[in-house]
Amino acid sequence: MQDPGHLIATYFVLLYTILGPLVLFAIYVLFDFLAKSGRPTGRQPGAPADNNEPALWTTEDINAHLDRF
Description:
Elements: H1 4-37, H2 59-67
């Protein structure tokens, strides 16, 4: 028969091995959801380019920006 200390340690190792990644994934999903709720996800085609994020610019936005120079 096993010592109760070894049995408890085995249960904790199995518990953390199985539930650890699930808990970390749930925390990641929560933080991702909270980050997305406060910022715009982009703009619809045809909407004015009122943002200063060049990564979201369309071809028309780039041409309009270059035409200013």
